[in-house]
Specification:
The structure is a single chain. By secondary structure, this protein is an alpha/beta fold. It has 11 helices and 8 strands. Strand 3, helix 3 and strand 4 form a beta-alpha-beta unit.
């Protein structure tokens, strides 16, 4: 089953919905709405990771996150994920019962493995590169994940708590983004559940002839459908209701195919 992870940006500058949920009450209302729409995880981020974004200090990141986590405490039935690459933010958030750390930095903070281990959190390891290498094949990107995976395991993070993400839109050309989606099985071959986050991203706009962010729903849903057929465990999306419906329809079709084959 593919789980839909709903995106909640408590930022002023995210590429798709910057500023919309910066107010804590608006953020809480959206989290509850996404849960009602069928999200299996709510992923909360306080720092935009769009190209050219302004990095935040852990203290500023926490200033945005804490009011939302306080208000959500005990109100959600589904797990909360924190989109952060700061171990200190993850440690603080663990006190509010978060379940997942979604790290876009490929383990930049050396203290992160210990925080994940000590608080029993799940950890999303996303592939990224500081330098784009247009000729780099997907197989090489997969290999680049092996070292941080080894660091997590050596630190005592259980393998069952690790998720890998190909990092669509991070340190890649649009062609490489499409290749990662087409060859998602290579990431699954690492032996961990896979998360795909392509919702509304530039690769979709590019593939659809340059459509703006607000017109990328159809492309985003196509990625969700593809992820279901490819055995992806999680899809990270803005449009939760429509994505959940696509997942349910795809699962119904795939289940029927399995019965027909038996």
């Amino acid at each position: 089953m593919t789980v839909v992870m709903g995106i909640l940006n408590v930022t002023p500058d995210s590429f798709s919905d910057g500023g919309r949920y910066l107010d804590p009450d608006a953020a809480v209302a959206r989290a509850l709405e996404m849960e009602a729409e069928g999200a299996g995880v709510i992923d909360i981020g306080a720092e935009s990771t769009r190209p050219g974004h302004t990095p935040l200090s852990p203290d500023e990141e926490w200033r945005r996150l804490e009011p939302v986590l306080k208000r959500l405490a005990g109100r959600l039935r589904v797990p909360i994920s924190i989109d952060t690459y700061h171990a200190e933010t993850a440690r603080r958030a663990a006190a509010y019962g978060i379940a997942v750390v979604n790290d876009v930095s490929m383990l930049r903070d050396p203290d992160m493995p210990a925080v994940v281990r000590d608080h029993g959190l799940r950890y999303v390891l996303m592939h990224t590169r500081h330098e784009v290498l247009p000729g780099l094949p997907v197989s090489a990107m997969v290999e680049e994940l092996r070292s941080p995976l080894a660091r997590l395991l050596e630190a005592g993070v259980p393998a069952r708590d690790i998720i890998v993400d190909p990092g669509i839109g991070f340190g890649k050309t649009r062609e490489q983004d499409l290749a990662c989606l087409a060859e998602i099985a290579r990431f699954r071959d690492l032996g961990f559940p896979v998360l795909v986050g392509a919702s509304r991203k530039r690769v979709i706009g590019h593939a659809l002839g340059g459509v703006p962010v607000g017109e990328r729903l159809a492309g985003s849903l196509a990625v969700v459908a593809h992820a279901c057929t490819a055995g992806v465990a999680y899809v990270r999306v803005h449009d939760v209701r429509d994505s959940v419906r696509v997942v349910r329809m795809m699962e119904a079709i795939l289940a029927h195919g399995d019965r027909s084959a038996s």
